[in-house]
Amino acid sequence: MASTTSSPRLVTVAACQLGPVHLADSRQDVLKRMLSLLEQAAQQGAKLAVFPELAFTTFFPRYLLEETDLDQYFDVEDPSKGGIEQSPNVKPLFDRASALGIDVYVGYAERSIQKDGTHIDYNSSVYYSANANKIVGKYRKVHLPGTVEPRTEPGAVQQLEKRYFRPGDLGFPAFRAPGLVEGALKRSSGQYTATQSAGKGDPIIGMLICNDRRWAEAWRVYGLQGMEILCCGYNTTAFPTTASGHQLDHLTPEAAEEMVMLHHKLSCQGNSYMNACFSINVAKTGAEDGNPLVGGTIIVHPLGHIIKEAQTKEDELVLATIDLADCHRPKSTVFAFEKHRRPEHYHPILDRTGVIEPDLL
Ligand code: CDV
After folding, report:
1. What pLDDT was estimated at residue 191?
2. Does the beta carbon of 123 lie inside 6 Å of ligand 1?
């Protein structure tokens, strides 16, 4: 697809898909796999490596666990001791990223220690900048699927994110990633109006986690901050379930997986198009202890097409060189929000959560 006429802002990005992580796999082994993907990405010129949701462990919300069994899955963030970058489970990834000059998005289970010593748990991601040598972005998953109480029907699949995590409290904060593209306009470069500097600064990044990618509102809040790259890691069950946690019995496993893949791609492609941004959507995939997760790691263009797609359900690097200038034409034409949006008619989006149907005739 041809670039727009604005100057190219090229960056090579890597979606670091992970194959299954089983209950018996040690944190160290998983970290080794992630480091290997990071090395390969850097060798091939990538400046950004995106890992899945809850990357370091199996997708534990599928199990009903006691508090003591849960602890092992979390990384503790204690303001008095430092954040996730101090965790021995994670630090080597960021140290290596700094040495290789490659940024990292990674999902993890966050145990946030409060002033009174209690903790709140979140399903989180951070963006580590190699250029800044620190975390420059943080996100806590807002849309938590599943139930608080375990489903009781025989054979039901559990999805206990609502039990283990609190909904994210940070909103959808876009941020700029320094050093990702060459020649980015800086505040110190001079006085520019917002129109003059639009699309010329350091890349604007947004982060979502798994189920969030299905919610247009989340993308739009980032879109309204000029997001150019959306990073999203996921663990998505390879079959759609009913409200009671059962597989749809009229579908073969193949048809079920095809449907899950369709909805995943529709969400990523549609929302990338409607917000004129690239998106890097990265799976943890394969069967974790017999529990199938869909693959479908994709890098999507602002015009909605898939640039690159994973071919396996294993650890796999999906690499693409993207031109952020490609966001510019749709952002200044069909999706020039300032010209065409009509927020005076969007009240129901803020005023209600669920559906209110028109009165019966
Ligand atoms: N980890 C997830 O958020 N998974 C959900 C499943 C449960 C539907 C998803 O939206 O992919």
Report:
1. 85
2. no
Predicted confidence (pLDDT) per residue in 41-97, tens digit:
999 999 999 999 999 999 999 999 999 999 999 999 998 888 899 899 999 999 999
Cα gap 284→270, rounded to integer Å: 22
Is pLDDT of 3 > 60? no
* Ligand 1 pocket member 285 (CB < 6 A): no
Q: Is the CB of 236 under 6 A from ligand 1?
A: yes
Instruction: Report, as an integer, the average pLDDT of 335-351.
Output: 98
Band (pLDDT 50/70/90 cuts) for residue 1 is: very low
pLDDT score for 154: 86
Amino acid at 297: T
Cα 221 from Cα 125, distance rounded (Å): 18
Residue nearest to atom 6 of ligand 1 (CA): 236
62: tokens are: 């599928």
Question: Helix (H, G, I), strand (E, B), or coil: what is residue 275?
Answer: coil
Q: Is 4 contained in some domain?
A: no
CA-nearest of 183, 198, 247, 226 to 337 is 226
At residue 64, what are phi and psi to the nearest 5 degrees?
Answer: -90, 115
DSSP 3-state assignment of 145? coil
Give Cβ neighbours of residue 7 (< 8 Å, ≥ 6 apart). 183, 200, 325
Distance 328 CA to ligand 1 centre (A): 31
Residue 211 identity (one-letter amino acid): N
Count up the domains in the chain and report the number.
1
pLDDT at 4: 38
**Is 158 within the bounds of a domain?**
yes
Q: Which domain holds residue 20?
A: 12-183+200-339
- Rounded to 5 degrees, φ, ψ at 341 are -70, 155
Domain assignment of residue 194, yes or no:
no
Q: Is the pTM of this model over 0.85?
A: yes
Nearest CA to ligand 1 atom 4: 236
Quick one: which of 223, 182, 188 has its CA closest to 200?
A: 182
Residue 2 has pLDDT above 50, yes or no: no
